[in-house]
Sequence to fold (467 residues):
Amino acid sequence: MSIAELVAEAAAPSMEQVGYSSDQCLKCNVCNTVCPVMRVTDKFPGPKYVGPQAARFRSGRTSPVQIKDWPILASPDVTVDYCSGCGWCTAACPAGVKIAEMNSQSRARLRAGHRPKLRDWGLSQTDLVGRVGVLFSPIGNWALSNRLVRWVMETFFGIHRKAPFPKFSRRTYQSVWKRRLKKRDISLAFAGAGSARATSLPGPDKAVVYFHGCAVNYYEPHVANAAISILERNGFQVIVPPQACCGLPAISNGLYADARGKAHKNLEILADYARKGYKIVGTSTSCTHTIKAEYREMLDMHDDDTEVVANATWDICEFLLDLHDHGRLDTGFGRLDEDLPYHAPCQLRSHGIGLPAMDLFALVPGLRARDMDHDCCGIAGTYGMKKEKYDIAQSVGRPLFDKVRASGASEAACDSETCRWQIEKATSVRTKHPVEILAAAYLAGDRARAAGDGAGSAAGSGAATVN
Ligand code: SF4
Ligand code: SF4
Fold:
């Protein structure tokens, strides 16, 4: 096995290896000390208990050889459902126990053989909800802001009345993009990389595939506009292929079969591009982490398509910072004289790529970005939207909300959509994706240059600090 393969396997172990890892537990309790959910509620006994400790009873095995006989003799402890899947325990465990992954698998077992709750199924169907919401966006947006409708959603469906929901766009981003190509008379970007028409696409050093995810497609087209403007400015033709939900909401709700279906749809589209050397760049750090790691470690998918796509996938800030490291990033940022609280989402930390947005912010003159240095905003995808978990999620995120409010800033930044919605709802501080901040900095630079103000576009004088 090559070093690269060993590194990839360590980053994304199989379902079987996740199970094995419980045997490595040292009972040191470190995971319990970092768990944001255990910190705020007695309903959750903690990662050590529901993870490696319970796994021994669940597996019903007496030797590692029998692990192939999963599943499973005993029922998982139902309290595992209170795990938000933030991943802090896995990141902190000195013995490499895959606790968060184990918990996700346990949740899937809890659901197996039962019809899912309508609420959990609905929260997993982001494409269906998004399409219908966009189609009827004026009514949908009115309904989501109506107190009576929200009461009905809480009482009959279990979605908390104060859960943060974004507004539906008037059009899907896919349709906006198709119109844009039509205007420019470009049709090749819709061809699969394996098709004959795709032969005239620029090479992989001049084009990237953009995975926009559901948030951009149905709610936040401005994030795509910012990302694509930055990529084009840096010399890349952007390919936006048709795509499905990455599957993370289904994984989080224990609906693995559904998630696998979504994963296969995406892999069918993306694998051709990845094999031809194109990088797949995403603005949702949750989607990119799912494609990079969770198809393998949660859904136990280890075919060639999964591997090649995982290895080609980049979070957009990771990609832009890599361009900068290779001297290829346009650093003509203009001055943004502002304080910017920044929250690094749990999913970003699971990438193991540091905080690339903070490094990029440091290139923007005048920008005083500060990492809020808080573990979790509480939302964890759809976790904090659920009636029985809403208060827990708010308690988890409260120190972050207090810090953001205390900063006095007019806007904040965060790489994950549901975290942005959570922070914005809790603090009333407009919360943007880092690419929106960078696009604004490019615009400020262009304006300063047009006005002949060299000082306004001096790159590299921003400040990025940890709070
Ligand atoms: S941190 Fe790891 S080794 Fe320590 S108790 Fe938790 S699972 Fe076991
Ligand atoms: S994934 Fe997060 S909430 Fe779940 S046990 Fe680990 S630290 Fe706690």
